[in-house]
Design a protein that fits this description.
2 domains, Butyryl-CoA Dehydrogenase, subunit A, domain 2, 6-stranded mixed β-sheet, binds flavin-adenine dinucleotide, globular, alpha+beta, about 15% strand, Butyryl-CoA Dehydrogenase, subunit A, domain 3, 4-stranded mixed β-sheet
């Protein structure tokens, strides 16, 4: 099969029977034709089509060592820094397509899966060969160019308990009900699966499991096809719109987010990677280096978003003639600083890449930890800067239909700008508002904050992980010891 085309993606998505709840409506077949998913489906189809553009084929794909078919570059197991650069080039093309607004383009989870399969031995071989399971699954996803969603978090019912087993009902968080000859049966829920428009769902642990054997029924990692019986997705309200002038971003890039319900879902043995093993659940992301490949992909996407913000603020400022004011220039300069800082993290992480114990070239972990911890603290700057510069203009954006109304002459006169006619200015300001203020834009702001987990707890992890601080501490102590 190999790298997908857009048409193949749409057809394969539509032919799967799923259970997606949008309000009181159950979506089963033809998901890409549903108004909630049409825009995002089209965008993903366009991304897949880029893999087949003759001038991009060598950048977007490589030859599979298994089948000889061309497969997506984000599956490449990097052995050299040049391989890493190839991955980055491919990911940047996809990220630029949505200006970094699609957080879950398939390369995100492809990267995680590639790292886990490369470290297959970590998953181990007992009665079940988990190592072989993850290796085979990676190959299956790669050869069919499948699109994955994932879910890591238990439902937000009561965070004060130390284990999901201590919730009022031990089956609120997804847990194993039984094991049988075919596999395990799982009951409960997980959140929050962005991009329910997928072929497969990865169910992996994220929150640290602290309660030893009490946590064992929750300590699992597996993958399922989205058409598995009993698997249900409950969507949030859609931000998608039909009009690409009124909602230029939401009409194309609303990935949708869903709570996932497992109503006694059978997970076949060959799809299980970790079973009743809290220690492995807590360790897999770091030990397999999946976290670094996800952080690397995210960094590329964040750079694309920063570059877009610089372009947007510059155009907006020139359009309404505020670009010569030093305070405006300072604000845009701050975005330039963020952009070039993200680029520096990316370049440095690749320059300092090292081979891991699984034989994979991994971008530098310190730079990636710093970048993924810094991002939720700085991403909001993009949002606030555009609001500060756009000011009331961000509200002077009538529905585009006004351009075909009797009010058109007033609109032409009063909505014009120094460097744009009314129609151009309305389009530009709608784009800015969709980026930072509409339901879609507000969700982006929240997304960036929690993209990699809770920033507060991530910072604690960084503090504990960063052993270099001992050397720095020693320098301070040595200095103090010399003081008489
Ligand atoms: C738009 C969006 C898309 C997402 N997409 C995905 C996805 O595709 N897949 C996926 O698996 N997840 C996804 N997530 C979930 C994301 O991983 C979580 O939001 C993140 O890990 C934080 O967990 P939480 O939302 O459950 O917050 P909670 O853990 O409930 O935290 C809520 C607040 O309480 C504080 N808090 C809670 N517990 C503690 C504690 N023990 N110690 C200190 N403070 C605490 C937190 O600091 C936070 O401020 C998405 C989230 C958003 C917002």
């Amino acid at each position: 099969m190999g790298a997908r085309t857009g048409t193949r993606f749409l057809e394969e998505m539509d032919s799967k029977k799923r259970e997606i709840w949008y309000g009181d409506e159950k979506i089963t077949y033809n998901i890409t034709k549903h108004p909630v998913f049409r825009g995002i489906a089209q965008s993903l189809a366009e991304l897949y089509d880029l893999q087949h553009k003759p001038e991009l084929m060598d950048v977007m794909t490589y030859v599979s060592p298994l089948s000889g078919e061309r497969v997506g570059m984000s599956f490449l197991q990097p052995k050299t820094k040049e391989d890493l650069a190839k991955r980055t080039m491919m990911m940047k093309i996809w990220a630029d397509y949505s200006f970094g607004l699609l957080g879950r383009t398939p390369d995100y989870l492809n990267s995680a899966l590639m790292a886990m399969a490369s470290a297959a031995e970590f998953f181990g071989k007992g009665k079940i060969d988990f190592a072989e399971n993850i290796r085979r699954y990676y190959e299956y996803v790669r050869e069919n160019d499948l699109c994955l969603t994932h879910t890591l978090i238990n439902p937000q019912v009561n965070r004060s308990v130390t284990s999901p087993s201590k919730l009022s009902d031990p089956f609120i968080a997804a847990r194993i009900v039984e094991k049988n000859s075919e596999g395990i049966v799982v009951r409960g829920a997980r959140m929050l699966a962005t991009l329910p428009l997928a072929d497969e769902i990865l169910v992996f642990p994220s929150t640290v499991l602290k309660s030893g054997q009490d946590d064992a029924p929750y300590a699992m990692a597996f993958a399922l096809s989205v058409d598995t019986p009993g698997l249900k997705f409950i969507c949030r309200e859609s931000f998608a719109h039909e009009s690409n002038i009124d909602h230029p971003l939401a009409s194309r890039f609303d990935e949708q987010d869903a709570v996932v319900v497992f109503d006694d879902v059978l997970v076949p043995w060959e799809r299980i990677f970790i079973l009743e093993d809290p220690e492995k659940c807590n360790a897999y992301s770091e030990v397999t280096n999946a976290v670094y490949f996800m952080a690397h992909q995210s960094l590329v996407r964040e750079l694309a978003k920063c570059e877009f913000a610089v372009g947007l603020t510059t155009l907006l400022s020139e359009t309404i003639g505020i670009d010569q004011f030093p305070n405006v220039q300072e604000k845009i300069a701050e975005l330039i600083m963020l952009t070039e800082s993200m680029r520096a993290f990316l370049v440095a992480s690749e320059a300092n890449a090292k081979m891991n114990k699984w034989g994979i070239m991994v971008p530098d972990s310190s730079f990636l930890h710093a970048a993924r911890n810094l991002w939720p603290r700085i991403a909001h700057k993009l949002n606030i800067t555009i609001k500060q510069l756009g000011a009331s203009g961000l509200m002077a954006i009538p529905p585009a239909k006004v351009l075909n109304s009797e009010a058109r002459s007033y609109v032409d006169k009063y909505y014009q700008a120094k460097l744009a006619n009314a129609e151009e200015r309305i389009k530009l300001f709608k784009l800015a508002w969709d980026f930072v203020g509409s339901s879609f834009g507000s969700r982006q702001d929240l997304y960036e904050y929690f993209f990699f987990g809770d920033p507060f707890r991530m910072a604690g992890n960084l503090y504990n992980w960063y052993t270099q601080k001992e050397e720095f501490k020693k320098r301070v102590k040595d200095f103090l010891d010399k003081l008489k």
